Amino acid sequence: MAAADIVLVVDDDEDIREAIRRIVTKCGYSALAASDARAALRAAQAVGGPIRLLLTDVWMPGHISASTLAEQLTGLHPNLSVVYVSGLPKELAVGRGLVGADASFLEKPFTPAQLVEAIRAALGDNGTGTQVVSSPLGQARPERRGPS
């Protein structure tokens, strides 16, 4: 993980969006959050650095689909990785043409550890500096390994 790694979280459910944003920041990534594709595009144009990961819900309000959002953001941020999140099983999302068969996909509900694993896999981060452990409340928190 580089200090400048920015993750853009897009979900129309405020509680889910905020929970994901907190987990992302607790793992040491910078996080931007948006409620829909238009807000995500505005945030991506305004950000001061490259966005490395789009973490987006498959179902969003408005006329811009998650896959179209990913295509548009890739034009602005060529090294962008994408993880799609949905309550639908991946097979259904693929069958309905919502995501490609090779898309990175995280099915809801998921644990904080599963979210972190998906983020690290998408970014090619093996997590050598940070390990996520569960707190008693079920929220992820970063734990540094080795000397501080």
TrEMBL record:
Q: Which GO terms describe its biological process?
A: phosphorelay signal transduction system
Identify residues that carry 4-aspartylphosphate.
57
Question: Where does the sequence pass through the membrane?
Answer: none
Q: Where is the composition biased (Polar residues)?
A: 128-137
Cited Pfam families: Response_reg (PF00072)
Q: Say which domain of life the source belongs to.
A: Bacteria
Q: Does the keyword Nucleus apply?
A: no
Which residue ranges does the record assign to the Response regulatory domain?
6-123
Region (Disordered) location: 127-148
Q: Record keywords: DNA-binding included?
A: no
The residue stretches assigned to a coiled coil in this entry are none
**PANTHER family, from UniProt?**
RESPONSE REGULATORY DOMAIN-CONTAINING PROTEIN, STRESS RESPONSE REGULATOR PROTEIN 1
Q: What is this protein called?
A: Response regulator receiver domain-containing protein
